[in-house]
Write a structure and sequence with these properties.
31% strand, 13 strands, binds adenosine-5'-triphosphate, 2 domains, 6-stranded mixed beta sheet, transport, alpha/beta, Rossmann fold
């Protein structure tokens, strides 16, 4: 199997509101994928379509080569509010997980609970946000899924708890070789753990690809004020700002830019994400938009 998730023209509408529009993706298996975008961009909707909690309005989605089915043992899902049963203990959660999941790995669950310092007899309602997130991750991972979907798993965590959570996630992916798709607003965190990135803005995928390729393929160009409508073949404008004398462009390019009229610098992942989130893509003609995908 080579794809963890394929979407083709995937669209989800709630009544008249479009949450996801014409989304086309092919996420290779074995990656930790970051899903980033502003509030309301459609991230949760995409994850819920991927785990079978929602049905598409139009288009197609395939997860691990099949149409998503809610409750599949091959797919683990941790929802945005890391739901746990307040009246049940940590140990009760593990017993329930074992009862409900044919592929449950008790050793993994118990080892993780001990490792992250969760007291088995403690009721989940008494756990902190970070501990709840660790419990939810443990339950999802102990299913030994091939794909783990995490909806803003670290949003409520302090920096130390976040680091511990992400460290735990990296260990799990290294040990189990599973694919992960994780939404977050914290791009610096995603940069540490993700090797694939999707930027979703206004219900549309603006860019998706291997982090390494995105870093290599995006450039900041600074030079004399210019007309940006013609950047040349294979170059696509992502964002632009101008003063009276100077233009600063963020450009995606299929080849290195070797042009003495520009000062060309690399970008980090956060720069790239911000360029797409606040950038010129949505204001460009269709031809340029298509080129960006
Ligand atoms: N059950 C629903 N009924 C109606 N509209 C919805 C529903 N769920 C989501 N939406 C709308 O769909 C759009 C996408 O929402 P979604 O929750 O997928 O965004 P998101 O990127 O996850 O946002 P956030 O970063 O704030 O969690 C939003 O405009 C939202 O208001």
């Amino acid at each position: 199997m080579t794809s963890a998730l394929i979407a083709d023209g995937l669209t989800k509408r709630y009544g008249r509101r479009t949450a996801l529009k014409d989304c086309t993706l092919d996420i290779p298996a074995g990656h930790v994928t970051g899903l980033v975008g502003p509030n309301g961009a459609g991230k949760s909707t995409l994850l819920q379509l991927a785990c079978g909690l929602l049905d598409p309005t139009a288009g197609r989605i395939e997860v691990l080569g099949r149409r998503p089915v809610s409750g599949s043992p091959k797919v683990g899902f941790v929802a945005q509010d890391t739901p746990v049963y307040a009246g049940l203990t940590v140990a009760d959660h593990l017993r329930m997980g074992a009862h409900l999941n044919p592929t449950w790995d008790s050793a993994l669950a118990e080892q993780r609970i001990a490792q992250v310092g969760l007291e088995p007899a403690l009721k989940a309602g008494k756990l902190s946000g970070g501990q709840r997130a660790q419990l939810a991750l443990t339950i999802a991972a102990a299913k030994r899924p091939d794909l783990l979907l995490l909806d803003e798993p670290v949003a409520a965590l302090d920096p130390l708890a976040r680091r511990n959570f992400l460290q735990g996630l990296m260990e799990l992916t290294a040990e189990q070789g599973m694919s992960v798709v994780m939404s977050s607003h914290l791009v610096a965190d995603l940069e540490r753990v993700c090797d694939y990135l999707i930027v979703l803005v206004d219900s549309r995928v603006q860019v998706a690809g291997e982090v390494e390729d995105l870093l290599a393929g995006h450039h900041r160009l600074v030079g004399q004020r210019c007309d940006t409508t013609d950047l040349g073949a294979g170059r696509f404008l992502v964002d632009q700002s101008h003063t009276d004398v100077q233009s600063t462009l963020v450009v995606r390019s299929t080849a290195p830019i070797d042009d003495p009229s520009w000062q060309v610098d690399g970008l980090n992942l956060e720069d790239i994400v911000l360029a797409y989130m606040g950038g010129a893509v949505g204001k460009q003609p269709d031809a340029v938009l298509r080129g960006n995908r």
